[in-house]
Amino acid sequence: MRTRSIAPLSKEPIITAQIPFLDLRIEDESVRRELLAAIDRVFCHGRIVMGPEVAELERAMALRCQRVHAVGVNSGTDAVFLACKSLGLKAGDEVITTSLSWIATANGIALTGATPVFADIRDDLNIDPASVARLIGPRTRAILPVHYTGKICDMDALGRLAQEHHLPIIEDAAQAFGAVQHGRPAGSFGTLACFSMNAMKVFAAVGEAGAVLTDDVGLYDRLVTLRYNGTINRETCVEVGLNARMDTVQAAILLCRLRRVDDLIQKRRQIARWYQERLADVVTVPVDADDTRDVYYTYTIQADRRDELKAYLEICGVETKIQHPILMPQQPAYSQAAKGEWANAQKLVSRILCIPVHEKLGLPEVEQVSRCIRDFYGGR
Ligand SMILES: *Cc1c(COP(=O)(O)O)cnc(C)c1O
Questions:
Q1: Which residue owns the Cα nearest ligand 1 atom 14?
Q2: Ligand 1 pocket mutation pick from 147, 198, 297, 324 by most atoms within 8 angstroms of CB
Q3: Is the distance from CB of 67 to CB of 193 less than 8 angstroms?
Q4: Which of 333, 335, 338, 311 is nearest to 322 (CA)?
Q5: Which residues are marked as active site?
Q6: Cβ(346)–Cβ(335) under 8 Å?
Q7: pLDDT tens digits for 171-223?
Q8: How many CA atoms does the CB half-sphere of 263 hold within 13 Å?
Q9: What's the 134 CA to ligand 1 centre distance in angstroms?
């Protein structure tokens, strides 16, 4: 048996069902009808570009995240880039960010000409404020934490550092819409906050979408200009820019999905509890810190013999992912001149594994995944 070469098993793997990492099909009839009706309304009013749904979504996101302004954009990558650009970041400036994230975070910084400086992470996979403190220098212009896996960073510590050094915080909240820490939502902490609503996120469009939130009217005005080729009044170009406008159809979809996002988050949190009860003694499982609500964009365990476990789960019909297998400073595009420190991240990146946590899973699937993992370690 193939499995024998991977791990000494107490018994053969039980394959009851294929469990995909994500399932983006929209099958529920009432949800489908609601989304199609929303798209149909856009067809009828015909304001395909920057239609009323975009402004409505911006108001709704700002309200929900306790912000004054929101600017809908084309993607989370655009959101990070435009947020950095709105602060006037340029070549020679440094922005301290985490070392473990999707590479869009570093790209958003680097596209302004500024240099990302990579900080180490804590065991919860989020940026370590002690590492940030060590990396702050004369060229530092901003701190850009990522609420990784849907868990908000230690914003008390980061807020204190930012205040002490008079630095703005840009939250990359792409994975954390709906997360809460001490009563405050993700996206409410930074001078600027960035969201991605790409199709894989918990709060998701059926294509690409993103947003930048702020309370500062000056930054808001600049973001609106930057969103459309650096123009004012739709014609006069006052600075170099690109087209980062959000589609009306995506905004219409997102308005529908915003009404259901808390149900999705509750389901993910339930699945996380089920996993915790079944897996906490065989692998390191993620836990909510006190007085926080994590949204489990990913359910990322830390496991011994991670690659063997991943291969074994595949044989068991369980699709998993490593988000992400390459630290940002070690990506070929950055590794030549990467600045910062990432010793703990280096240790953890070989242990992380994201197991399915999407809202279509029920208890039987969670039990199947858990049983396979326990089997792998020879437990029951
Ligand atoms: C998804 C993601 C982005 C980029 O968002 P896109 O909409 O895919 O461009 C940026 N940062 C993080 C942490 C993300 O997870």
A1: 174
A2: 198
A3: yes
A4: 311
A5: 201
A6: no
A7: 999 999 999 999 999 999 999 999 999 999 999 999 999 999 999 999 999 99
A8: 7
A9: 27
pTM over 0.85: yes
CA of 344 to the centre of ligand 1 (A): 23
The per-residue pLDDT of the chain, averaged, comes to 95
How far does the centroid of ligand 1 lie from the alpha carbon of residue 218, in Å? Answer: 25
Burial class (CB in 10 A: 0-12, 13-18, 19+), 173: buried
What stretches of the chain show up as alpha helix (H) in DSSP? Answer: 2-6, 29-45, 52-64, 76-86, 104-110, 129-135, 155-164, 217-227, 248-258, 261-279, 306-315, 332-335, 343-348, 363-376
Atom nearest to 80 CA in ligand 1: 10
CA 49 / ligand 1 centre spacing (Å): 23
Quote the tokens at residue 36: 């199609």
Q: Which atom of ligand 1 is nearest to the CA of 209?
A: 7
What token pair was written down for 107?
A: 């790209």
Which pairs with CB-CB distance under 8 Å and at least 24 residues apart come from 126-129? 126/98, 126/151, 126/152, 126/153, 126/154, 127/97, 127/98, 127/153, 127/158, 128/344, 129/154, 129/157, 129/158, 129/161
- 274-286-191 Cα angle (round to 5): 125
User: Residues with Cβ within 6 A of ligand 1?
Assistant: 75-77, 80, 101-102, 104-105, 146, 172, 174-175, 196, 198, 208, 210
Q: Whose CA is closest to atom 5 on ligand 1? A: 76
For the chain, report the end-to-end CA distance as a whole number of angstroms: 21
CA of residue 139 to ligand 1 center, whole Å: 26
Q: Which atom of ligand 1 is nearest to the CA of 297?
A: 15
Q: Which atom of ligand 1 is nearest to the CA of 147?
A: 13
E-strand spans in 79-154?
94-98, 115-119, 140-144
Q: Please write the tens of the pLDDT for every residue from 120-169.
A: 999 999 999 999 999 999 999 999 999 999 999 999 999 999 999 999 99
- Residues 150-160 as b or e (16 or more Cβ within 10 Å = b): bbbbbbeebee
DSSP 8-state code for residue 66 = T
**Helix count (H) and strand count (E) of the chain?**
14, 15
